[in-house]
Structure formats: C-alpha cells, structure tokens
C-alpha cells in the first residue's frame, strides 16, 4: 500500500508541507504567534521553556526544538529568537541546515518586536512560496512514522480503543514502518511485559531504567507513584490493580518487539516499534512525538479530549459510543466496545490503518480542521530559576 | 450504539470477564471466550467496567486479564464472583491508596 507525501532531502517523508515558525524561548512566543496567524501555510511551535533553567534542561530544550524543526512535516523553518535565551539557537540553526531545510531567523532584541515581526512576515512568506512549489509523490507504506498516545482514559480505553490502536500499530510495524510510543508513567506495573518485548537485555535494561528514574523523581518530592495507583476514580471505574491499569494503557503499543528506547526530544531512526522516555501529559508528549519524527499521531481516548498539534495530524479514536456522540467535533473514529478481543481486532486495526493512509495523503483530521492544538509544551525536569 | 454483548473476555487465557453493562446478581451472562460461548451465573451485581470470575481461582493464584496477571487472589474466588480490590492484591506495589495519577 502507499500514500502521497513530500520527500525531504534528509530522506524523511512528510505528510504535510508546513513552514514551522519556531519560538526558541517563551518570551518570543508573541512574535511567532503573530507571524503564524498572518502567513498561510505556516504552523507555530510555542512553549514556555528556554530561559531560567539549569544546563541539563536547556540541553533538552535545544535538542527537542532542533528535532521538532526537522519533523518530516516541515519544509522549512523560521526561528523566532529573543536574543539572550539559554537555548542554543546557533546549534538549532546548524542542525536544520544540515537536514537540507531552508532556515531563517529573526531576533527581537536586535531592534524590537515590530521590526522582528516585519522581517519574519517576509521570511515566512518567502519560505511558504518555496515550499508550495513541492508536489506530493507516492511512497510505499514502509515510510510511515506513526506515534501512539492515550489520554482522557476511561474503562472503554483498555477494552476497546487501546487494543484497536495497538492492532493498527502492529499493522504499521508489519508493513515495514515505524511506530513510537512512550508515557513512561504508564509502564509502572507492566515493566515485566514490556521487558519481555524488548529485542535484547540492553533495551530491557533501558526500559527499567527510565521507569526507575521517573519513580525517583516523584520520590524526590515525597510522592509514591505506585502507592497512588490505581486512583480512587480508577477503582470506582473497575480497575483493580496497577498491573491492570498499565496493561490497558500499553495495549495501545500493540504486540511487536521494542527495538530501542530514546531520550525525550531525540529523533527516532530505524524501522519497527520504539519507546521515547516521556510524560503522559498531552502538550509535552505530543511534542516528544513530533521531535521523534512522527508524521501522524493515533490518539486513543475514553472521555474524549480536544488536543491536536500544529503540524502533526492527530487521529482521535474512542471505544465509548457516548463520547463519540457527545464530541462530534473532536473524535475521528469509533471502535466497538468488544474491539479488544479475538479476530475482530485485526479488522479494526486494518480500518484504522486505512484512515492513517488517507490522513497521510491529505485527509484532514477533526483537530486540524478545527485548528485545535496551538499550545504544546516542552518537558523538562529541573527547577525553574 | 447498542452493545450486544454483556461482557467481554480479552484473551483466551483470561479467568475474568469485564462487564459491558450493569449486570444483576443471579443473572446468567454468556461470554465469548476465543469463539467458545460460556455461560456464567453471577453471584453479585457487577457494575459496568468491573470484572467477574470465569473459573475457580485459588487463594494466591494469578487473576488473568489481557492474558497477563493483574494480581493474585487474596481469597478463594468462585465462578461468577465479583473480582475487585476486595479479593485481589497487586504484586507490583499498587495498593489502591487514593490520590494517584
């Protein structure tokens, strides 16, 4: 099977063809936002990071912004800088250039926001004009890079939408493509299942290490991740143990072997299923997927959530028929509540896969049409100083 | 959307089923276990999303859902019993205290 996408000089394939307007620090957001509002064909990336943070966090911010700027769905990049930020803007510029993408930069402290805005509008217009000359070409489906996520979960998530998403994930991997999942907090209690799926002991050790590090960070502020799971609400909904909760959550990653584990903000290379160390919260996790190089995100939900992402289509899947009816503006697909079992699962996985191919070739998701998802975030672990 | 099945068994090795509707005590529920239809009489009411037993689970034996252990029986569980925090204990540390994520 195949889809129509945009060939990038670094060998990746985009399913959208935006010019990214990337804010390199929280204080530059306004100018980035103004430019993206005015110039059609651009997509902003706004966040609150890049200043008043310690060195390891600034490294994460720089790495993640650089990777996000090289997402396959971006044809070119305009960086909007303040000037004095802790983010290494020069390194980001160099890495974007090395990927073969055109990059421009405006700096607010050079002559103020109005001048930066004027320059930025012209740069963005020029980059969009260049990008708009590209024509989509046919690629076989081994070029797909799909991220998976669950959020706003309820009882139906573990029964239906997560296993269904997992079946689609297996389908991507079996066709030679790449699947990425994460949300390390949701591995708690299911580490023994995940490590069994690791391709070797080194990868299994990495999985255990990221769970351990996450628990230690919680303990450092006096919280016990295990003790609070499942929550009172989870128990009221029928979840008995942390194992049951985590098994339901990781069902979205399907059943194929885990090839490797990446740090937050690193681009994923290679085919098969990968883990990115990341929190489960949507703004930070969707950024992790975009940085990893995902073209599309499959998002499994029970209660229904609105999030999209500025330049990565997000396909919402629910197993809850009430949610599907209540939120027609947010949910793209409904799967049956018995989706998670037996031979029906394969057919549902195939249906989702066909939707992925359609979206890859240009079909718009509901979040894209609505323009929902302009406020992603960046994940850092240290104090704000 | 009408839900035809009253309960679902996710893996053929599971010894519990999950209710897809609020089920009454004493009612008989037929579930599909990997193509084989099994009828279970419920010992107590089972709320939507909660579990009941498909088999005798001895005290200390694993409770299986998704084909994997979700904890150990903390008492002997009979066919058709309600299965939840009162008769299952986690082996991975989750004790069900309030206030978690």
From the 3D structure, determine the CATH topology of chain B: Archaeosine Trna-guanine Transglycosylase, Chain: A, domain 4
**Assembly state here?**
heterodimer
Number of domains as seen in the coordinates of chain B: 1
Q: What is the helix tally of chain A?
A: 14
What is the H/E order of chain B? EEEEEEEEE
For the biggest sheet of chain B, the summary is:
4 strands, antiparallel
Ranges of chain A where pLDDT stays below 50 over 5 or more residues in a row are none
Share of helix among residues of chain A? 40-55%
- Share of residues in strands of chain A: 15-25%
Task: Looking at this protein, list some descriptive labels.
heterodimer; A: 385 residues; alpha/beta; Rossmann fold; 2 domains; four-stranded parallel sheet; 14 helices; globular; B: 101 residues; mainly beta; Archaeosine Trna-guanine Transglycosylase, Chain: A, domain 4; three-stranded antiparallel sheet; disordered C terminus
């Amino acid at each position: 099977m195949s889809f129509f996408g945009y060939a990038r000089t670094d060998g990746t394939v985009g399913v959208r063809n935006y010019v990214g307007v990337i804010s390199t620090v929280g204080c530059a957001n306004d100018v980035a936002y103004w430019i993206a509002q005015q110039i059609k064909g651009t997509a902003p990336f706004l966040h609150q990071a890049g200043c008043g943070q310690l060195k390891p966090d600034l490294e994460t911010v720089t790495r993640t912004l650089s990777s996000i700027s090289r997402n396959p769905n971006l044809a070119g990049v305009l960086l909007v800088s303040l000037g004095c930020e802790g983010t290494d803007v020069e390194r980001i510029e160099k890495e974007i250039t090395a990927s073969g993408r055109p990059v421009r930069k405006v700096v607010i402290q050079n002559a103020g926001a109005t001048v930066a805005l004027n320059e930025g509008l012209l740069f963005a217009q020029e980059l969009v004009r260049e990008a708009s000359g590209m024509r989509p070409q046919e690629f076989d489906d081994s070029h797909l890079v799909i991220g998976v996520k669950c959020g706003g979960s309820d009882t139906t998530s573990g029964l239906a939408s997560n296993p269904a998403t997992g079946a689609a994930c297996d389908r991507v991997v079996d066709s030679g493509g790449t699947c990425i999942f994460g949300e390390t907090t949701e591995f708690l209690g299911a580490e023994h299942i995940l490590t069994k799926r690791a391709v070797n002991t080194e990868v299994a050790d990495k999985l255990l290490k990221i769970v351990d590090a996450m628990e230690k960070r919680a303990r450092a502020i006096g919280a016990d991740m295990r003790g609070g799971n499942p929550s009172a609400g989870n128990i009221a909904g029928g979840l008995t143990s942390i194992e049951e909760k985590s098994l339901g959550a990781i069902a979205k990653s399907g059943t194929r072997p885990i090839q490797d584990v990446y740090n937050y903000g690193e681009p994923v290379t290679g085919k098969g299923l990968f883990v990115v160390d990341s929190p489960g919260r949507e703004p930070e996790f969707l950024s992790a997927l975009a940085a990893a190089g995902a073209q599309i995100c499959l998002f499994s939900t029970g209660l229904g959530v609105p999030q999209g992402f500025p330049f990565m289509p997000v396909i919402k899947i629910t197993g809850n028929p009430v949610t599907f009816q209540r939120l027609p503006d947010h949910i793209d697909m409904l799967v049956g509540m018995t989706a998670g079992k037996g031979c029906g699962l394969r057919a549902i996985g195939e249906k989702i896969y066909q939707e992925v191919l359609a979206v890859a070739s240009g079909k718009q998701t509901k979040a894209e049409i609505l323009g929902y998802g302009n406020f992603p975030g960046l994940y850092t672990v240290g104090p704000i100083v | 959307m009408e839900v035809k099945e009253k309960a679902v068994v996710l893996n053929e090795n599971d010894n519990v089923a999950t209710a897809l509707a609020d089920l009454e005590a004493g009612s008989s529920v037929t579930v599909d276990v990997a193509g084989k239809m099994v009828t279970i009489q419920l010992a107590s009411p089972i709320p939507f999303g909660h579990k009941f037993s498909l088999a005798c689970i001895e005290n200390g034996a694993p409770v299986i859902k998704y084909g994997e252990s979700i904890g150990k029986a903390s008492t002997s569980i009979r066919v058709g019993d309600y299965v939840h925090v009162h008769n299952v204990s986690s082996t991975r540390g989750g004790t069900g205290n309030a206030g978690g994520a």
